[in-house]
Amino acid sequence: MHTRIYEYKHSPCLSSEENMGLRSRKPEAKAEAAKHKDDMELQFQRLNARADEPLLKLQVQTVKFNYMWKDMIVKLSWVLVPYSFLYIYRYKDDYEVVGFHCLSALFFALTALWFKDVEENGFEKIAMGKVFRASVVTMVSQLLIYVNIWLYADAYNPDLKFRCVPMSAFYCIIIGLALGIMRRNSQKIAKHREKIIKEISSKEN
After folding, report:
1. Helix axis angle, 130-152 to 167-204, nearest 10°
2. What string of H, E and C letters represents the secondary structure of 56-122?
3. Crossing angle for the helix pair 130-152 and 95-115, nearest 10 degrees?
4. What is the pLDDT of residues 50-103, one digit of tens each?
5. 107 vs 194: which has the higher pLDDT
6. Looking at the whole model, is its pTM more than 0.85?
7. SS3 (DSSP) at 38
């Protein structure tokens, strides 16, 4: 009876050799997991490389096209600065017109400064800058002045409505269109790249 109890108690226990076997398996499992991770990363890099090859030409064309838009907006902004000063010179005796178009010149100059740093997907960073905020404040101020002119100018200067046109508001529409086109072009490349990666991975599997 004592012998049976002794055997019952000690039969589930592992021998020292079995314990050594389990310990030796742990480093092997870790090595296999690390190797699997490296293989997955290598496969992912190969997929990216193969996807980037057909997209290279399209990406170069998109970068050139977006740069063309950015360069056009910046140059147009600088051109509109002296255009605003022409209005200032033409109506130099009318202080309201002079002040209004001084805001226009300031807006166009600020727009040229912040738009030259715009990237396809980096508008959020520009929007947090002081130059961009100053241009927004300038545009809003000009719009408020124009609303005031439109409501009350008939009583003392009817021609003021036509001499003070808020060019900054119309120019914001052009800027919005340019930014939308630039971002849409970059998003097309990203979506096309994901599509190519899925096609390559499905063929390999």
Report:
1. 140
2. HHHHHHHHHHHHHHHHHHHHHHHHHHHHHHHHHHHCCCCHHHHHHHHHHHHHHHHHHHHHCCCCCCC
3. 150
4. 555 666 677 777 788 888 888 999 999 999 999 999 989 999 888 889 999 999
5. 107
6. no
7. helix
User: Residue 120 burial by CB count (10 A; 0-12/13-18/19+): exposed, middle or buried?
Assistant: buried
d(CA 108, CA 103): 9
Which residue matches tokens 């600088």?
78
Would you state the structure tokens that stand for residue 64, as one six-digit string? Answer: 């050139």
CA atoms within a 13 Å half-sphere pointing along the CA-CB vector of 141? 14
Two structure tokens written together for 137: 């404040």
Backbone angles phi, psi at 128, to 5 degrees: -90, -5
Angstrom distance (rounded) from CA 153 to CA 127? 34
